[in-house]
Design brief:
Elements: H1 5-13, E1 18-23, E2 33-36, E3 39-49, H2 56-61, H3 67-74, E4 88-98, H4 101-107, H5 113-129, H6 136-145, H7 151-157, H8 162-174, E5 178-180, E6 185-187, H9 189-197
Helix pairs in contact: 7-8
Length: 215
C-alpha cells in the first residue's frame, strides 16, 4: 500500500490514522506492515464503508479538509470492465510502527568477517537468480561513482530499463548497502565498508554522461 509522503508523515506524527481506498478486494490485511518515507506503518483495521456515510471526522483523520474532498479523490478513474465487479470503498486504519529498520542497518559499518561473508552470499544469490546476469557489484560500483544521479541515467548507462533497475537497487537498499534520495542514490556507510572488505571482483562501471543543462 503506497502512501504519499505527506500522509506517511501524518501517520508518524499521529495526525493521520485512516486511509480510504477503492478496491475490488482488500489490498491489505489487519496486522500487515509496510515501509514508507516516514517509517514503518501498521494496518490496524480494514472495513468496507459507504462513501456517502464518510463524515468530517473520517475525512480529517485521513488528511482531507472535508468529506467532499475525500470523495473526489475516491472517484473511479474508469468504469469496471465488462464482467468485473464494482470496486468498493475500504476504510483502512493506520498506525506508526517505528523507524525503517534499514536506516539503522545502512549506518552500521562495523562489519566483521562473518558479516562480509554473509553479504557476499546474499549478493551472489541475487546474481544467480537474475535473468540478466550478474549485476550486484556493477550496480554498487555505478552508484558509488555516480551519487545522486537520476535512475534513468544510471539504467541507460548499463543498458537497462529504468523500473527493473530501480527494483534491483531497492534490493541493495534492503541489505543496507545503498540509500535513496529525492534524486538518485548513494552508497551507505555499510556499503562503503563492504566494498572495502569484500574480495568479490568490482567491475569498472561505465561513465554516465552529464545531464543536459537545465534538467
Amino acid at each position: 500500500m503506497l502512501l504519499p509522503p505527506k500522509v506517511a508523515h501524518g501517520v508518524a506524527d499521529g495526525s493521520v490514522t485512516l486511509a480510504f481506498r477503492r478496491w475490488r478486494r482488500p489490498g491489505v490485511k489487519v496486522g500487515s506492515q509496510f515501509r514508507t518515507v516516514a517509517g514503518v506503518v501498521r494496518v490496524t483495521s480494514v472495513d468496507v464503508v459507504d462513501e456517502e456515510a464518510v463524515d468530517q471526522a473520517d475525512a480529517e483523520a485521513a488528511g482531507f479538509a472535508d468529506p467532499d474532498a475525500l470523495r473526489r479523490r475516491l472517484r473511479p478513474v474508469e468504469p469496471p470492465a465488462e464482467g468485473q465487479p464494482d470496486q468498493r470503498v475500504f476504510r483502512v486504519g493506520l498506525a506508526w510502527a517505528g523507524e525503517d529498520p534499514r536506516l539503522a542497518l545502512r549506518d552500521d559499518d562495523d562489519l566483521d568477517a562473518a558479516a562480509v561473508a554473509d553479504l557476499d552470499r546474499r549478493l551472489e544469490r541475487l546474481d544467480r537468480a537474475s535473468s540478466h546476469g550478474a549485476w550486484t557489484m556493477l550496480t554498487l560500483a555505478l552508484v558509488r561513482d555516480h551519487p545522486h544521479r537520476r535512475a534513468p541515467d544510471l539504467a541507460a548507462a548499463v543498458g537497462r530499463e529504468r523500473d527493473p533497475f530501480k527494483i534491483d537497487v531497492r534490493k541493495l537498499k534492503n541489505l543496507g548497502l545503498t540509500q535513496s534520495f529525492e534524486v538518485g542514490y548513494a552508497i551507505s556507510p555499510r556499503g562503503r565498508a563492504y566494498l572495502a572488505a569484500t574480495t568479490r571482483p568490482l567491475p569498472e562501471p561505465p561513465v554516465v554522461p552529464d545531464p543536459p543543462a537545465g534538467r
